[in-house]
Write a structure and sequence with these properties.
Strand content: under 5%
Shape: globular
Number of strands: 0
Structural class: mainly alpha
Number of helices: 6
Distance between the termini: 29 Å
Radius of gyration: 14 Å
Helix content: over 70%
Length: 105
């Protein structure tokens, strides 16, 4: 519950930043992660897509997209996003584990 409160506060703070928050990939990554932690999957995916517009080869955004689509039951898209992340960083142990987990569903 404490973590959820922190994530909710993070979202409120970044909302107040306005347009500045919409172009800063670090703020967007924090927002996307917070939405994902709060199980607000559609919002997390939406923000991760915005990150990809700013930086198409962002591993963290691809991981958020993979997790989000997995949680929504869209295994095919989740696997595609994992493959995108692995294309960017094929040495990432976390991405490899996520890909293996989703692939074995």
């Amino acid at each position: 519950l404490k973590t959820a409160g922190l994530h909710s506060e993070l979202i409120k703070v970044t909302d107040k930043l306005g347009d500045n928050a919409k172009t800063n990939k670090y703020i967007l990554l924090a927002r996307a992660s917070a939405f994902l932690s709060l199980n607000e999957i559609d919002e997390a995916i939406e923000v991760a897509v915005e990150i990809n517009k700013i930086e198409p080869d962002n591993v963290e955004a691809s991981v958020i997209l993979a997790k989000g689509h997995y949680l929504l039951g869209d295994i095919e898209t989740a696997l595609i996003e994992c493959q995108n992340a692995l294309r960017i960083d094929d040495q990432s142990q976390g991405v490899n584990q996520l890909y293996g987990m989703i692939r074995n569903v």
